[in-house]
Amino acid sequence: MTQVSRVAKDIFHLQVPSEKLTSIFTVYLVQDGGGALIEPGPAANIPGILEGFNQIGFDPSCLEYIVPTHIHMDHAGACGPLAQQFPQAKVVIHPDGKRHMIDPSRLIASTKMAFGDDFEDAYGPILPIPEAQMVVPEDGEALRLGGRELKMVYSPGHASHHLSLYDSKTGALFCGESLGVPPPGTQAPLPHAAPPGFDIETYLATMEKQRALKPSMLLYSHGHIGKDPDSLITAAKQNTLDFADIVLSGLKAEEGEEQIGRRARELMKRVSGIVDERIMLNMTVAGFLFYYRKRGLA
Prior knowledge:
This protein is of the alpha/beta class. The chain is built from 10 helices and 13 strands.
């Protein structure tokens, strides 16, 4: 059953369980004006999202915007099916992701590489979105939504097509994965470095760009609500640098990927107390490895 809570004025946090996965996906609804659905997640989320709308008393036929922070399947996979179901809604996409949402063939191919050829069985399909149903904002452009504005903030590093959203009414920042991912039950945001688009310097610069917004809270896409943004951003930066040091020093010492991964798990346990987030950790190590090899630094 979808768990719904109000986290700020007119902002609802939906924890959507998956029948076929152990993951719980975090979705947000801004119930102002026509309403904005932020981070719909994979297509498998849709029944849980609609259940959450019903609990809130929100009519999705009025939905104005669907906004994934980036086009990775676990954030944007539901956009195509939702766009078909609610044709009045506009899907807001970073310009670097636009072509892949119109024709998702490359996105589907990369998703199969990350999650397996049968990913649809658990996560649902990735469907194209009509170009006429898209909004492609400029950096800093604001969506008007009832009595508030949602400012679009380009937030590259995790991926070039990453957006964050700053809410003018509450100061909340929907940060996606641009400020790390806190493992469940922790206050230790860890880097999430998905190959091939991860870029360390850009990731760190984005963190400072978002710190300058002075958000009142961080609304993570994986994990909890961050109540002390400045400290969390500082921790995310430090953990990113520490992971980078482990991977780069390992490459220079000609360590194997298994040995580098073991030291990364030790760091993860030390800073968060968590050791069982293998999928995220393995992808993060792979992202750092890809980045350094692409740059010819090892």
